[in-house]
Amino acid sequence: MAISDSTIQEIKNRIDIVEVISDFVSLKKVGSNYRALSPFTNEKSPSFYVSPSKDIFKCFSSGKGGDAIAFVMEVEGINYIESLKYLANKYGIEVQEEEQTDEQITAQNERDSLFIALKYAGEFFQDILWNHSEGKSIGLSYFKERGFSEATIKKFDLGYSLDAWDGLMKPALEKGYSEEILEKAGLILKSENKTYDRFRGRVMFPIHNVGGKVIAFGARTLRKDKKQPKYINSPETGVYHKSDIVYGIHQARQAIRNEDLCYLVEGYTDVISMHQSGVHNVVSSSGTSLTKEQIHLIGRYTKNITVLYDGDAAGIKASFRGIDLILEHDLDVHAVVFPEGEDPDSFSRSMSSEAFQQFLKDNAQDFITFKTNILTEGGKNIDPVKKVAVIRDVVESISLIPDGIKRSVYLKSCADLLEIDEQVLISELNKILIKNRKKDRQHEERESSAVDEQLADSLQSKQEEQTGYTPFYVEKECLRMIINYANEPFDEHQKIGEFILQETADLKFDDVLINETISMASGFIKAGKNVEPDMFIGPSNPKMSQLVIDLLDMKYFISDGWEELHRISTSHEKEDLPTATYKVILRLKRKKIEEMLHHNEELLKKSSEAKEQDELLQMIKHLKTLFDQVTTELGIVVSK
Fold first, then answer.
1. How do residues 34-79 score in pLDDT, each as one tens digit?
2. What is the pLDDT of residues 105-142, one digit of tens each?
3. Neighbour-count burial of 282, counting CB atoms closer than 10 A to its CB (0-12 exposed, 13-18 middle, 19+ buried)
4. String of b and e for 561-599 (b: at least 16 CB within 10 Å)?
5. Distance between CA atoms of residues 406 and 419, nearest Å
6. What is the pTM of this model?
7. Residues 52, 517, 500, 59: what is their CA dihedral angle, to the nearest 10 degrees?
8. How far apart are CA 368 and CA 576, in angstroms?
9. Which is the most buried residue in 39, 158, 283, 616, by most CB within 10 A?
């Protein structure tokens, strides 16, 4: 199904970009724009900007930018159509869809085809669970024995796969899904002699992306056969990279944002049981080691993670790397350890919802207390040799924290807890930091050496940038003036966009993308339309979108009251746009004349005919005169 053009336009007309982005990040007004920490990178200083007047966002740390639709696509990891549907739902707009033919569906790209096949599989497994005798007697009974209510089962789209070689494959092929797509989606397997279902006779846990689309499955066997693995999972596919996703993020993201806290558990049933106990801000790493990508995903919604552990000390020690990784990415981490023999699933089912939630709050420990207790067996093993090892281990973790103030606070806490002079810890920390910096420098030097050849190749162009304006720069400046000021008056007869296009009508823009964008702007202006940035931004031409976003004036501005507060007057090109525009045109013409001069001088060197040489000399003389005139004129403009 495709969304109708009228619906797309209505969505665009209703969007408030500040309102949309505020659902995901905390924006602060600065001047006429808004600023925040990037939701895409782990940064300390805010470099994410939103311009409500232009309906555009720009993230200077990641390079991402665009309109509200593009933002939702990026932050939720969904495609254009899904982003439109998200915004339509937010603003209560009825989505009018247009039927697609079988040929159009077949022609969709592979990524969309994978999503479609996985959606079908998820719905198929759910239907088997609720409506098939095997699904009800085995799968549904198992979930209910675990204490999951029907509402909870439906909330997580749980299902069951038939104990048959082609339980899914046969009906999927009959529905028109190809073996190739089913295999690429990880739903079927092929051997030399046979093609068969990957998941057979198992309860199914669909894995969703942040936007709610099924991207993979976890499957648990209910048999006692020890030869069969208890869990099998979907393989890596074009839409599923297990290191990038955490289980339950779709159901938990709003609660994580509201609570400003994320509980991190190990398994699927841990997540589901905690939801049933009223704790909705919980996700699972699905049994894999925690990755930086998973931490970054959680970091979009909160900077606070509490890791929940069962009572297995050996297993906890093995997971210390995950805590260090969280610290390294500047998130705050706590831990809760359940009584021996319990895990989040079993423990949450053993008490009331209120009691379980209170237990989590009462037993959360900061990572130093937690790690020290584990390494010293709750204070039982504190012989001197062990104590030295524990101190070194904890200080190593503290050294990973990027924020210096946080490091100092944790050092003091460590000194108090382990009864050691804080200065000793500071000295040990400094040794570790110096050692790590040396490693970083060595790594940077190796990288620098690898790109020496590239730097040498670009030296000439860099020198040109330092001594004058490059052809690309002056062409880009023309486009920048059009994008930002096309609708502003140049004089009483014409607007800035009209003036630039009039002055450059006979000039060729060498950069293909700039030429294409200016041609599009020319079409809008000739049609009597105002030029707006969002006219150039969209999924059809991502390179043009990025170029236009990069040219928008968003990051640098004087905030309200700055001049009055500091009593320093500042100037901006907006104060005299006609002069700024004229200067840009002169620079472009000067560069074009310079190129023509160079071209004709090269022709003169190669010419052997007297007549041709005379003509070239005349042309060179004329071009030099023009060059001097433009240079003089530029001098007059600059000196004003």
1. 888 888 877 777 888 888 877 888 888 888 888 899 898 888 777 7
2. 444 468 788 989 999 999 999 999 999 999 999 999 99
3. buried
4. eeeeeeeeeeeeeeeebeebbbbbbbbbbbbbbbebbee
5. 20
6. 0.62
7. 30
8. 59
9. 283
